[in-house]
Amino acid sequence: MAKASEIKVGNILRYNGELVTVTEVLHRTPGKGGAFYLDKFRNIKTGKIVEARLATDEQVEICRVETNDFQYLYEEGDYMVIMDNTTYDQHNIPKALFGPAVKFLKEGMNVIVSFESEEPIMATAPNHVELEITYTEPAVKGDTSSGALKMATTENGVEIRVPLFVNQGDRIKVDTRTGDYVERVK
């Protein structure tokens, strides 16, 4: 247990029985009454923002979270199987923890997973991945209006919009947070 005055942005707390990450800490000293903290927490499971008013000496539970690099091995139903790079232990991580970036994961890719007492609570894919284009329509000559895009299918079956000069067999870099084309890889 720790005091509310010891909370820092980025800490993970157990607040009202839920795991939350601290996004904002404001110290207020009104003219009348004692000082207090106005904190904003983001619920790790639901993503919902919660505001809390805590007295400076109020007790809160700061959770011990271990964050490590893991290697993504394969998909198994609603889970992604990952392996610890040092101990070679394997863990099943729910796909939902990766969010929309899960569709860009390739076997052998490194991911970051956070555990709180043996339970996975957060998972992060790399910000950018390199994928090969397996199918795309050929560009039509003269169809070169500024910023023209066409649909392309990547090696893991994801369809994204790419510029007209990208052809089948090219390797491209994709932003996993937005799903957008970044650049062609040489």
From TrEMBL:
Q: Which InterPro entries match?
A: Elong-fact-P_C (IPR015365), NA-bd_OB-fold (IPR012340), Rib_uL2_dom2 (IPR014722), Transl_elong_fac_P/YeiP (IPR020599), Transl_elong_KOW-like (IPR013185), Transl_elong_P/YeiP_cen (IPR001059), Transl_elong_P/YeiP_CS (IPR013852), Transl_elongation_fac_P (IPR011768)
Q: Does the keyword Protein biosynthesis apply?
A: yes
Task: Read off the Gene3D superfamilies from this record.
Answer: 2.30.30.30, Nucleic acid-binding proteins
Tell me, in one coarse class, where this protein mainly resides: cytoplasm
Q: Which GO terms describe its biological process?
A: peptide biosynthetic process
Q: Where in the cell is it found?
A: Cytoplasm
Functional pathway: Protein biosynthesis; polypeptide chain elongation
Would you say which domain of life the source belongs to? Bacteria
Which GO cellular component does the record give, naming just one?
A: cytosol
Q: Which UniProt keywords apply?
A: Cytoplasm, Elongation factor, Protein biosynthesis
| One Pfam family named in its UniProt record | Elong-fact-P_C
Domain named Elongation factor P C-terminal: which ranges?
Answer: 129-184
Q: Which family does it belong to?
A: Belongs to the elongation factor P family.
Role description: Involved in peptide bond synthesis. Stimulates efficient translation and peptide-bond synthesis on native or reconstituted 70S ribosomes in vitro. Probably functions indirectly by altering the affinity of the ribosome for aminoacyl-tRNA, thus increasing their reactivity as acceptors for peptidyl transferase.
Q: What is this protein called?
A: Elongation factor P
Species source reads Mucilaginibacter glaciei
